[in-house]
Amino acid sequence: MNLKCKNVWEHISEFLDQQLTREARAEIEKHLENCEVCSAILDSTRNVLILTADDRTYELPVGYSKRLHARLQKALHQNPPPGKNSSN
Q: What's the domain range around 49?
């Protein structure tokens, strides 16, 4: 069986939680050996899980939220979603 990326993405959580059959796990591992995109998604998902499980909190620099919101607003107005008008 030759898995497509979409099939791998649908089972990333089960793969990380070791809840797949031996055969399914082997197929995904085989796919990951040759697919940089899926390997990156697996690594990113693993990192998100590690970070969200970490109980530490981080204090953001003063003004960070304000700057972030300003950048997001600017980006949204420069690149409105398809079908949306930036004047709305």
A: 5-53
Of the chain, the percentage scoring pLDDT greater than 70 comes to 88
Q: What angle do CA 46, 50, 55 make, to 5 degrees?
A: 165
C-alpha to C-alpha distance for 26 and 69, rounded to whole angstroms: 43
In a domain, 40, yes or no: yes
Number of domains comprising the chain = 1
Global pTM? 0.59
Q: Residue 58 and residue 37: Cα distance in Å, rounded?
A: 30
Beta-carbon neighbour count of residue 80 at 10 Å?
Answer: 13
Place of tokens 């899926």: 38
The per-residue pLDDT for range 39-50, each reduced to its tens digit, is 999 999 999 998
Report if residue 84 sits inside a domain: no
Alpha-carbon gap, residue 7 to 11, rounded angstroms: 7
| pLDDT for residue 20 is more than 90 | yes
